[in-house]
Amino acid sequence: MKHVIRLLAATVSLALTAVLLALGVSPAAAAPLSAGRAAPEGHGTCTATTPGSKLARQGAAWTCMKERPVTAGDLARIRARTAAVPGVAAAPRHGGGDPGDSPEALCASKKQQDVVSNRHAYCARHGILYTLENRAGGTIGTAELLVTARSAPDPNSVKWQENIAVFAGVYTNVSAVRLALSSSCTSCIPGPPAWGGGAIELRAGEENQTGHLSYETTTRGGGERSRSMIAYQSQTESPDADYPVISYGQWAGPSVACDGQVGNTPGCIVTEDLARVTLSKSQYGAAAVAYEWAQNNLSDNNAMGAAKRPLTRDGDEKRADSRRYYTCKAPPKPFVADPTVVDDECDEFPFARTRQGGTIGSMCSEIIPRYVGGGTWRVDVVRDEPVAPCIRGHVPSGENQNAGRSLGRQVQSERILQGEAYQVVITP
After folding, report:
1. Which residue, 372, 368, 364, is CA-closest to 323?
2. Is residue 299 classed exposed, middle or buried when 0-12, 13-18 and 19+ CB atoms within 10 A define those classes?
3. Run of H or E residues at 284
4. Predicted TM-score (pTM) above 0.85
């Protein structure tokens, strides 16, 4: 069943949850319990059934909700059934995207963690085990649910939306489960609960992918980057109850950072991942080949730009000009154009607009990347300095300038702040 059931009781419960959260009271702690009865120990969050009710007559003294791990079967089902949402895909990186960057691919990731993300997308996954417990704490009924919330925040927007999918698994002695879902966040404004504040009803094996949650950051421009921590609140109940017996759940989601410091518009990225600048050899030719050679051939103690030793952005133009001068023009060994390279221009790595750039050029290894056809390059080493911390590349001016422009665009799309680290990835 994939329709939304708008229940007055669920709406009232959602409003009650919001009030309790505003007062700093856990909804689970406020769930009604029969006098003198304590929830079964180690059984998650439980709510007492009413004596004499239909559930009680079936032997259920408690309805409980607890977490369950995401299984390989869950991932296979996500992979087979989760469709990409038009207009909601991981932001493309200049130099080529990776299909694994999409929110849908992240949801099906085998990583053993609830939130799987990259700089531009995330998927929060949460397994729910809804149980009916008897007075002795024994389980007499179960229902498995899997909730996923996937999104691709726009690096040029202060708003983003999550697409919610709920998958029902194996049910035992439970005919159906109703689920309502809302969210909260820090440093941002959450939108309305999923399904308009109502609840969806699912039977074993069914699914629903119609839910949405939305957010808007309070950051507009200037100041430091704000970090929004998202949390989810769920309410489950059995339709077999004479009146709603609701079990409450709450779990942590992703962290999204927003700022107004990079580029002309504020925007947001996912915070748990290192910024990444991607440059392809097919697009940027000798420039990209030179950077790749530097990463692979400079000394282990000095090689920079990889994830383990990232570069640090310094966008100050005057300092960049100074670093470029020291690497390319300063004595005792200023750069001299090679007549075999068309429009030869000095290209430095680490970049001049990084804190690692600006080493005096006489200490750098000097190389000439040469295309030999069929997508193959060779690199001639003009000067090999021992334990060199940098390279000077003989690169055609157009390829050098295009690579520099791509770097500038990606600083904006990755929202790399002044003083923030990033890695350089070279692709075919």
Report:
1. 364
2. exposed
3. helix 281-297
4. no
Q: Residue 232 is which amino acid? A: Y
Q: For residue 226, what are the β-bridge partners?
A: 258
Query: Quick one: tokens of 264?
Result: 């002309």
In angstroms, what CA-CA distances link 304 with 16, 350, 356?
53, 7, 8
Tally of helices (H runs) and strands (E runs) in the chain = 8, 21
Is residue 347 within 8 A of residue 396, CB to CB? The reply is: no
User: Please, which residues have CB within 8 angstroms of residue 224's CB and are 6 or more apart in sequence?
Assistant: 259
Please state, in angstroms and rounded to a whole number, the distance separating the CA atoms of residues 425 and 413.
Answer: 15
Considering only CA atoms, which of 306, 342, 326, 343 is closest in space to residue 392?
326
Q: How far is CA 246 from CA 28, 140, 262, 320, in A?
A: 10, 17, 45, 60
Residues 79-102 pLDDT 10s: 988 766 554 444 444 444 455 689
Please say if the pLDDT value at position 212 is more than 70: yes
Task: Provide the pLDDT for residue 301.
Answer: 65
Beta strands in 266-364 (DSSP E): 267-270, 275-280, 311-312, 344-349
pLDDT on residue 5: 40
Sign of CA dihedral 250, 254, 255, 256: negative
d(CA 270, CA 155): 10
Please spell the DSSP secondary structure of 149-216, one letter per residue. EEE---TT-SEEEEEEEEEEEEEES---EEEEEEEEESSEEE-PPGGGG-EEEE-TT-EEEEEEEEEE
Residue 73 parent element (H or E): helix 72-81
Look-up of token digits 């980057």: 225
